Amino acid sequence: MPEDHDKDVYPVPPRQTPAVDKQTTLPNPALILSKLFYYSVDVPVSTFRGIIEGIQGDKSKYYHQKFRRVPELTECREGDYLCYYEAEMQWRRDFKVDQEIVKVIKDRLRACQQREGHSYMQNCNTELKQFDQVTKAFQSRYADLGAYGSGRKCLMKQKERMMAETQKA
Amino acid sequence: MVGMSVLRTAAAFAARINPLKRTCQSSNLLSRTVARSEQVAVRHGSHGKRMFIIKPTAFYDKRFLFLLRNYLLYTGVPVAAIVIFVNVFVGESELAETPEDYEPEHWEYYKHPITRWIARTFYDSPVKDYEKMMALIQIETEKAEMRQQELEIRKHMREKGDGPWFHIKTLDKNLIDNSPKSSPDN
């Protein structure tokens, strides 16, 4: 199976499942089904993958590309189209990163809901607040820019936001 | 004549009694006692077994499906075989930390071996593409700048009148032949 994510970076909170307190002698059907699934599906698939990986031998490596920071659109002189281009590319990369951040937060909330079951509304408060905050921030920055959204339009949206704030105050 | 009518009635009676057993068929056409029956003598070439099944043509449908299957498999099977071999024998790459003072080649940023091969063989590195785009932008900026300058210079030269662009060259006065106007009586 492909490896799970790094548990140091995205830590899994301690499990809150209660200890097993079996009061009947009847077998647990959930346990039976899970064992059945394990032996009929999981074990064959994992052995197959193990065989294939044994055939493959030494694998090549791939790396994570890191980009340097360049001056943003606000730090460019007027008419300096090269600076505009670099700032635009940087803005696009940052947009993609922000989309992935929202996905991660969303996945955390879904994992929390899956773990807690029916009591998720009480137990998942931190995740819920974080998700709320992150999505509101994303919406205020990137929403409604349209299909041709660019760093310039985002900057104009920020200007409108700041103007609205000063008018409210 | 009377005997003929007796024979005729006898033949008619016999035909009525047993319509299947006809002794002489031709006489029944003259008397009006031809008994109609659904059984007709048909000649099968296959000893009584019915062989010619009449149905609408399946030729065009069969031909279409045959051709479709063949053409799909001519490219499909080699591509599927290549992809299976690559996935089984070469395998995907593993993520690793970039070592210090090592600049990975541009294809080493991809995971699947076929993507890496395509990036290595056909595509320019994204850094090169970026620089190409920046070069185009630079050229266009310079062009726009020069056009602006030209318009400005034209305006100034036309206004002041001392710029070289708006000097109209006149002839050298030594070349003018003044002989037609040199005396008043010419």
UniProtKB/TrEMBL annotation, chain A:
Residues 1-22 are annotated as: Disordered. Pfam families: NDUFB10. Coiled coil: none annotated. The keyword Membrane applies. Its main location: mitochondrion. It is found in: Mitochondrion inner membrane. The keyword Oxidoreductase does not apply. It is a peripheral membrane protein. GO terms for cellular component: mitochondrial inner membrane; respiratory chain complex I. Keywords: Electron transport, Membrane, Mitochondrion, Mitochondrion inner membrane, Respiratory chain, Transport. Belongs to the complex I NDUFB10 subunit family. PANTHER family: NADH DEHYDROGENASE [UBIQUINONE] 1 BETA SUBCOMPLEX SUBUNIT 10, NADH-UBIQUINONE OXIDOREDUCTASE PDSW SUBUNIT. Accessory subunit that is involved in the functional assembly of the mitochondrial respiratory chain complex I. Complex I has an NADH dehydrogenase activity with ubiquinone as an immediate electron acceptor and mediates the transfer of electrons from NADH to the respiratory chain. This is NADH dehydrogenase [ubiquinone] 1 beta subcomplex subunit 10. It comes from Phoxinus phoxinus (Eurasian minnow). The lineage of its organism: Eukaryota, Metazoa, Chordata, Craniata, Vertebrata.
From TrEMBL, chain B:
It is a single-pass membrane protein. GO terms for cellular component: mitochondrial inner membrane. Accessory subunit of the mitochondrial membrane respiratory chain NADH dehydrogenase (Complex I), that is believed not to be involved in catalysis. Complex I functions in the transfer of electrons from NADH to the respiratory chain. The immediate electron acceptor for the enzyme is believed to be ubiquinone. Complex I is composed of 45 different subunits. It comes from Phoxinus phoxinus. This is NADH dehydrogenase [ubiquinone] 1 beta subcomplex subunit 5, mitochondrial. It is found in: Mitochondrion inner membrane. It comes from the Eukaryota.
